[in-house]
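Dear support,

I submitted the protein below through the web form. The confirmation email said the job was done, but the results page showed an empty box. After a refresh the structure appeared. I'm attaching both so you can tell me whether what I see now is the final result or a partial one.
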Amino acid sequence: MTREEIIDQVKEVLAEEFEVEQDVMTDDANIKDTLELDSLSLVDLVAVIEHTFKVKIPAADLPTVKTFAQLYDYIESHL
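What the results page shows now:
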């Protein structure tokens, strides 16, 4: 899977799950702020990403993933 495919798929599933427009998910945008996540919806985000990409995201890794670019990097490096 290419990085572009990862980005497209992330934007598609997150836009649907969190009811936001895909164009607000820029590389340097903060995920929590952009998607207006609280601790419970953060769990939903992790579940959606894990299910979609078949990757495991340990809780210890969450603090390192703040922007969408970091999320794409994380997925790409764990596929």
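Response: this is the final, complete result; the empty box was a page-load delay. DSSP finds four helices and no strands in the chain.
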